[in-house]
Amino acid sequence: MLNTRTSYQLALRQLTDSALPTGAFAHSLGFETYIERGVVHDEGSFGVWLAAFLSQQLTYSDALAIRFLYEGRDVLELDGLLSAQLLPRQMREASVKMGSRMLEIGTEVFPSRALSDYRAVVSGGRAAGHQPLAFAVVARSLGVPQAEATAAYLFAAVTSLTQNAVRAIPLGQNAGQRVLRNAHDGVAAAVERAVRLTPDDFGAVSPGLEISQMRHEHQRARMFMS
Residue 105: which residues within 8 A CB-CB, separation 6 or more? Predict the structure, then answer.
C-alpha cells in the first residue's frame, strides 16, 4: 500500500506529464509571434522569452490563481477574474480548452466532489473552466501541498512551451533540455513570489507579452493556435 506522499507524487507526475492529452502541444502562448518577428530565433533568445513569460504571466496569473484557490477563495470568483484579466482572446481560449480537458481527465482518473462541482458549473455555463483552476482543484483534492502543486504546474507549462519551441524555432533536443535546466531557478522564484503577492497584483502582466499574443491572431502563417 502506497503512503500518502508517494500516492500524490505519482498522481502529480501523471497530471503534469507531457503526454497528458490537454492540447498543450498546440499552443505557443505568444512566442510564435516573436519567432515571426525574428526576436526569438535560438536557444538563448527563447530562454529570455521563457523567463519573462514565467516570471510575469505564469506567476501573476496562473500561480496566483492556484494559491488563492488553495486558500479557500471561491472558484467561481477566480474563474471570472481569470476570464477578465486574460485580455488576448487566444489566451482565454487556450486556457479554457486545456482546462476543459483537465476537467474531463481529472473527473475520470482522479474524481472528487470539488472537481465534480466545478465541472458542473462549467457545463452549466456559469464558469469558463480555466486550466490553472482545474489543475488546482484536482491537486488540492489529492492532498498535494500548495507549493508542490504550483511548482509542478509551472514546470509542466515551461516543459510544454520548450517542446513546442524545439519544433518551431527549431532547437535541438539537447538545447531544449538546457533551457529546462536553466528554468529551474525561475520556477522556484515564481513559487516564492506568488506567495507574497496580493489580490491587487492579479493579472499584472507586461503589455509587450499581451500585445504579442494579440498579434498572433492576425499572423499570416502559424503553427500554433495561440
Answer: 20, 21, 22
Q: Determine how many CB atoms are found less than 10 A away from the CB of residue 174.
A: 10
Question: In this structure, are residues 108 and 140 in contact, taking their beta carbons and an 8 Å threshold?
Answer: no
Residue 1 has pLDDT above 70, yes or no: no
Phi and psi angles of residue 221, each rounded to the nearest 5 degrees, phi first? -130, 135
At CA 211, angle to CA 52 and CA 225, rounded to 5?
A: 85
- Specify the length of the chain in residues: 226
Neighbours of 108 (CB within 10 A): 8
**pLDDT of 43-86, one tens digit each?**
999 999 999 999 999 999 999 999 999 999 999 999 999 999 99
CATH 1.10.4190.10 matches 23-216? yes
Q: How far does Cα 28 stand from its chain's mean position?
A: 11
Give the pLDDT confidence of 140-167 residue by residue, as tens digits.
999 999 999 999 999 999 999 999 999 9
Give 51: exposed, middle or buried? Use CB within 10 Å, 0-12, 13-18, 19+: middle
pLDDT digits (tens, 9 = 90+) for 77-98: 999 999 999 999 999 999 999 9
In 3-state terms, the chain is what percent helix, strand and coil (to 5)? 70, 0, 30
